[in-house]
Amino acid sequence: MTLHSRISDPHTDFFTDNKSSDSVQIWSPQITSFIASQVAKHRPMVLVTSGGTIVPLENNTVRFLDNFSAGTRGACSAEHFIRNGYAVIFLHRQFSLLPYSRHYSHSTHCFLDFMDLDDDGHGGLQTVILGQYEEEMRSVLKDYKRAKQENLLLVVSFITVAEYLFLLRDIAQCMAPLGSNALLYLAAAVSDFHLPPEKMSVHKIQSQGGRCLTLHLEPVPKFLTRLVKHWAPQAMIVSFKLETEERLLIPKCRNALKRYGHQLVIGNLLDRRKNEVILVQQDSESWIRVKDGELEDKLVTEVIGRHKRWAVKMKSSI
Amino acid sequence: MTLHSRISDPHTDFFTDNKSSDSVQIWSPQITSFIASQVAKHRPMVLVTSGGTIVPLENNTVRFLDNFSAGTRGACSAEHFIRNGYAVIFLHRQFSLLPYSRHYSHSTHCFLDFMDLDDDGHGGLQTVILGQYEEEMRSVLKDYKRAKQENLLLVVSFITVAEYLFLLRDIAQCMAPLGSNALLYLAAAVSDFHLPPEKMSVHKIQSQGGRCLTLHLEPVPKFLTRLVKHWAPQAMIVSFKLETEERLLIPKCRNALKRYGHQLVIGNLLDRRKNEVILVQQDSESWIRVKDGELEDKLVTEVIGRHKRWAVKMKSSI
Predict the structure, then answer these.
(1) A26, A156 in Cβ contact below 8 A?
(2) What residue stretches are annotated with the DNA/pantothenate metabolism flavoprotein C-terminal domain (chains A, B) (predicted)?
(3) Averaged pLDDT score across all residues of chain B
(4) What is the mean pLDDT of residues B17-31?
C-alpha cells in the first residue's frame, strides 16, 4: 500500500465529474417539505449523518471500498436530539442502524426473541411481547410513534460517497434559511479516497489466473470548506474525527478546526469510541466519558448547549 | 485500475500466513455439538454461507474492501432448507440478513411499523401487533420458534475473508463424517483479492494533503479445490457465480465446474438475480425463473432433489 505525493488538481470539481445519480431528485421534495414544516413551528433542526460511505470499483457494483461504521453513534444521537426538542433529518447509509429500531436490530437483539405465541382466547394463537421485555419495547415504540406523528424525523438514505456529498449539499442548502437554528452533526464515516467515474470498470473486475489487482484511488475533496463558507454559512457545524492512534487524535481535531473554520470537532479513538469522546473547539478541549450506558445522552446534551450559545451569539452579531 | 500478470506464488499458504483470529476457537464447540446432535437424528444437513466478506486495509480497521451482498439469497434459502427437513449451519457476514428476522429487517420493513399501543384493560398501554400484520408475523414467529426448539439452525458469523475461510474449513471438516448427507451451499460473496497481513497498515491510513492512494491486492486462493478434494470429499458442493455481463455467465460457471470438479454451479446476473438463476452441472443447464415471490423456494426444492440423487449415487458406489 503506498501513498503517492501527486497532488490532485484542486480545480477538479467533484460535483461536475460525478453524476448526482437520482438520489437528490428522489429525496428533494420530501426534504423541502419537511424543512418548511419545521420552520413554521420554529423548531431547532439538526442534520445527523450516519454510517459509512462506499466507493464502488465498478459501475455495475460488485466490489467496493467501505468505511467501518454500523451507524450506532448517529442513530443513538438522533433519538436524543428528538427527545430534546429538535427536528432531525437522518441522512444514513442504507441498512445502517436507524433511530428506535436500532434497539432490536442486528443479530444481537433479534426482535423475534422478544415475542411469544399465546392463546388468543378463541382456540387459536396470537403474537405477544414477552412480559419481561414489554415495558422497554413500549417505551421505544411510544417514542417512535411520537416522532412519526409529530413529524420530527425524516429518514434519508445514501450508499456511495458521491450520493452522500450530493445529498449533504442539497440538505445543507435547504437548511441555510434557518440560519443559526440549524445544526449539522456529521457523524458519517466519509471515505477519504475514491475512484473517479472515468476510471471505474463498467463490469465486474475479473480475477483471471491468480493475478494481482492494483487500485489507484484519488482523494475525495474536502467538502467541509464549502459547507462552512457557502452551503450553510450560519449553521453550527460539528464534525467527527476517528483515529486509531491516541497521539494523533487531538492534533488531527485541531487541524480540522483550523483548516475548515467550523465550530466543533468531536474526536474519538476506534477502540474507546463507546466510552469517551473529546470535544475540541477553538479555545477549549473537554472529554466526555461514560462507563456504561449511552455516551450520546451526555454528548448530545452538551452539543445542544453549545448550539444554543452559538445561536445567541450569531443573532446578537447581526 | 490495473490487473497485473504477476502470478502469485502457488505455494503460499493462506492458512499459514493469516492468523485464524479467534473465530474458529469461539465457534468450534457449538459447531461440533450442533453437528453431533443432527447426526444422532439422521437429519440431512446443509451449510449455507451468506453475505459479503471484507478485506481490511488496516489492522485497526477503519477502511476495507467489500463485496456487494445483503444476504437475501442465503437467509431466504436457509428457511426453505429447514422447511424441507434439513438442519442448517448459517455462516453469515455479521449484520447481514438472517433467516426469519429478514422479513422485518432493514429500513423497508421496520418491525416497529407493524406494532401499536393499545389499552391494556387496566388503565395503561400495552404493545400489540397490528391486526393486518398479525397472521404473517405469527407464521414467521412459529417457524422461528420451531427452528430454535428443534435445534435446526445454528447461526455463525464472520467479518473478514480470512475468518470466512477458516470457519468454512472447520465446518466442512466437521461435516465430513456425514458423507453424502452433507450439502454445502456457498452463497456468500467471497472476495477474489485480499491484502496479506504483512502488507496491512497497522493504523488508519492518513489522507495527507490530497495525495492519491495505491493499493496492491493479491488473489485469494481458490479454496474450492481443497474443499472438494480434502475437507468434505463426499459432500455435495454447490457454488454460486455472480456476473454483470450475460455473455460471461455460462462460460464462467462451466469453468468453475471444470476447475474444481464439484457438483453444481448456480449462476446469476446482478440485475436479474431475484428473478432468474441458471443451474449448471457437468451434463446439464437449466434455468429457474420467477416473476414474483421467492425464487429460493423453487431453487432450494430443485437443489434438494439433486442432493438426494447425489446421496443415492454416492451410497450405491461404495
Answers:
(1) no
(2) 174-302
(3) 89
(4) 85
Contacts of A147 in chain B (CB under 8 A): none
Is residue A8 within 8 angstroms of chain B, CB to CB?
yes
Q: Are A57 and A197 in contact (CB under 8 A)?
A: no
**Residues A199, B60: C-beta atoms closer than 8 Å:** no
Residues in chain B: 318
Domain made up of A8-104+115-203+216-316: CATH architecture: 3-Layer(aba) Sandwich (3.40)
Judge: A242–B204 Cβ closer than 8 Å, yes or no.
yes
**A160-to-A59, A88, B144 alpha-carbon distances in Å:** 11, 22, 34
**Cα A77 from chain centroid (whole Å):** 10
What secondary structure letter does DSSP report for A317?
T
Residues 6 or more apart whose Cβ sits within 8 Å of residue B50: B69, B71, B73, B74, B75, B78, B90, B91, B92, B93, B96, B97, B187, B188
ipTM: 0.86
In the block, which residue shows the cell 447426526? B39
A5: burial class by Cβ within 10 Å (0-12, 13-18, 19+)? exposed
pLDDT of A87 above 60: yes
- What is the model's pLDDT at position A8? 46
- Residue B26: count of CB within 10 angstroms of its CB: 12
Longest dimension (CA), chain B: 75
Rounded to whole angstroms, the Cα distance separating B304 from B183 reads: 9
Q: What is the DSSP string of A67-78?
A: E---SHHHHHHH
The H helix count followed by the E strand count for chain A is 8, 15
Q: Name the nearest CA neighbour of A155 among A171, A140, A143.
A: A171
Which tens digits make up the pLDDT trace of B38-95? 988 889 999 999 999 999 988 888 889 998 888 999 999 999 999 999 999 999 999 8
Output the pTM of the full model: 0.90
B205 near B58, Cβ under 8 Å? yes
The DSSP code for B176 is G
pLDDT tens figures, A233-279: 999 999 999 999 999 999 999 999 999 999 999 999 999 999 999 99
What burial class does residue A131 get, using C-beta atoms within 10 Å of its C-beta: 0-12 exposed, 13-18 middle, 19+ buried?
A: exposed
DSSP per residue, B288-303:
EE-SSS-HHHHHHHHH
d(C-alpha B145, C-alpha A224), whole Å: 49
Q: Is A5's pLDDT higher than 70?
A: no
